[in-house]
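Hey,
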Amino acid sequence: IGFAEWLALNYGTRGIGVSCLCPTAVATRPGQFDAMPEIGLVQTPADIAQFVIDGLERETFLILPNAAVGGSFRKKATDYDAWITRTQQRLTAMDGLRD
């Protein structure tokens, strides 16, 4: 996201559009996340496609294909340290399930 912001700030005035897609997990293979229900919302590429098309047509910088991602961004912005801790804990718990 930081790199996309930099691109938009430095090149947006030169007519170069920049969008940043931030989906939740995307199952690129059928059943990819079936054994990991704790991962939360999983979308397919087809679910994401129309959001991308709409966002690019509107020249939206941050393309969020579902409300959960927007809520996550708001939580992250208000307390980055807490977001890092929560995310580390969630990833650690998921990692233990894959072993």
